[in-house]
Amino acid sequence: MRIFSGIRPTGNIHLGNYLGAVKQWIALQEKHECIFCIVDLHAITTPYSREEMQKNILDAATIYLAAGVDPEKAIIFVQSEIKEHTELAWLLGTITPMGELQRMTQFKEKAKKHPEYVNAGLLNYPILMASDIMLYKADAVPVGKDQEQHVELTRTIAKKFNQKFGKTFPEPEVVLPETGAKIMSLTNPKKKMSKSDDARSCIFLFDTPEDIQKKIMSAETDSGKDVIYNVTKKPGISNLLTIYSLVTGNPIKEIEKEYKGKGYGEFKKGLAKAVIEYLEPFRRKQKELTTRDVYVKEILNQGKMRAQTIAQATMQEVREEMGLT
Ligand code: AMP
Ligand code: TRP
After folding, report:
1. Which residue numbers in the chain have pLDDT < 50?
2. Residue 278 and residue 297 in one domain
3. SS in 3 state form for the chain?
4. 214, 311: one domain
5. Number of domains into which the chain is organized
6. Which residues span the domain enclosing 14?
7. Is 141 close to ligand 2, i.e. is its CB under 6 Å away?
8. CA 17 to centroid of ligand 1, rounded, Å
9. Does the CB atom of residue 300 touch ligand 2 within 6 A?
10. Of the residues 17, 46, 105, which should be mutated to test ligand 1's pocket, given the most ligand atoms within 8 Å of the CB?
11. pLDDT value at position 325?
């Protein structure tokens, strides 16, 4: 099986990104051929800082490595360095129905959030994502729940290409984690944790212990005082229970038992301690890697060369099939 996934280099990564996507990558790289991409061309479809882009790309690579992506096992590279991504995206655009793009939830949400920035790139975002996946003929795509719809559209595009031009691409499967596919915001547990929201709503992987403590202690909770998992009645506590369970490996039922009659305060204190401990190795590795820019750049360079070989071969095939050579 070949696996492909990516994250936009928009600064920090949060616990939702890690538990929803990156944690799965670490497990998958042990058994499969994995390709992990820093998708800078996707990042420019929403407002961004030109000055910070290069730093954010390097930070993203550092984050992948600190989180446990092994460059000996997986390919890590920067999307814009391989021109075939945009080339294939154009070709796939000619077989993608407009209506499909307009009904994508992410497009609608982002267009609403930045009404002054509704560019064609934002609409075409899923075509570029399909291109990322198909260029490497990936069989599976580990992502969080919010990206499931985009992977489904990729399947539709792959199927259409195969029907029209001959069997070329696998129809990639989405890989969602059993729990953690949608970690919610700490300040508004009805919304997903998102890096474009207030920093207090997210736990970033490299937050200091003090920040983690503060954010968890002030996280939105629900009425009542019992620590019980019930997503409709207690979205805040349920989200915190999910995180608690994922960082400790203890089932939710046991955590409920442990905090029976103890109230939200005690529960949050316990959770803060568990998250701080869980993230300690990430902070340590990140500190070490930030002083090793040259090493990180070399990994991206090697990744680029390995990815390029695959990308060029696919493009050659696609051009022939579409009658473009
Ligand atoms: P992004 O930051 O949007 O590039 O997302 C990178 C990866 O993290 C994607 O696979 C997303 O599906 C996943 N992700 C983002 N936010 C969350 C969340 N709140 N819970 C779980 N997974 C998430
Ligand atoms: N759209 C994804 C996100 O916002 C990032 C992404 C781009 C991606 N290309 C991809 C994820 C290919 C998986 C596969 O999170």
Report:
1. none
2. no
3. CEEEEEECCCCCCEHHHHHHHHHHHHHHCCCCEEEEEECHHHHCCCCCCCCCHHHHHHHHHHHHHHHCCCCCCEEEEEHHHCCHHHHHHHHHHCCCCHHHHHCCHHHHHHHHHCHHHCCHHHHHHHHHHHHHHHHCCCCEEECCHHHHHHHHHHHHHHHHHHHHHCCCCCCCEEECCCCCCCCECCCCCCCECCCCCCHHHCCECCCCHHHHHHHHHCCCCCCCCCCCCECCCEHHHHHHHHHHHHHHCCCHHHHHHHCCCCHHHHHHHHHHHHHHHHHHHHHHHHHHHHCCHHHHHHHHHHHHHHHHHHHHHHHHHHHHHCCCC
4. no
5. 2
6. 2-180+293-321
7. yes
8. 4
9. no
10. 17
11. 81
Output the residue whose Cα is nearest ligand 2's atom 9: 129
pLDDT tens for residues 51-60? 999 999 999 9
